[in-house]
Amino acid sequence: MPDNPKALISNADRYEPTLGLTTQDFVSHYDTAMLPARPRKPKDKAKVEVGVQIVERWILARLRNHRFYSLAELNKAIAGLINDLNTRPFKKLDGTRREWFERLDKPALRPLPTPHYRPR
Q1: Are the C-beta atoms of residues 30 and 117 closer than 8 Å to each other?
Q2: Fewer CB atoms inside 10 A, N or C side of the chain?
């Protein structure tokens, strides 16, 4: 669910924004769906925004006093923290993010189509 940018949306209707031709072609190529958020409706993306906020707080808070001298070194530190976050139990739900991904999302994933998407 992206915001409602002019580059993706051809008709920014208040209730049903229409995807542009290139965007629709991209979505069709990968056999997926894109539901843009309505203009000035932050509640449309609340769950996504909270997920980003959790990751930012969990990772940035732990790395704020570290100094990294290469991108590889930073990526290694982030990968370890992501693994810790994904195996940490939820506070209000049973299980972990990893368990929920394995049970709900992973079975629905498919390999990306070949060839990769190329804009017209």
Answers
A1: yes
A2: C
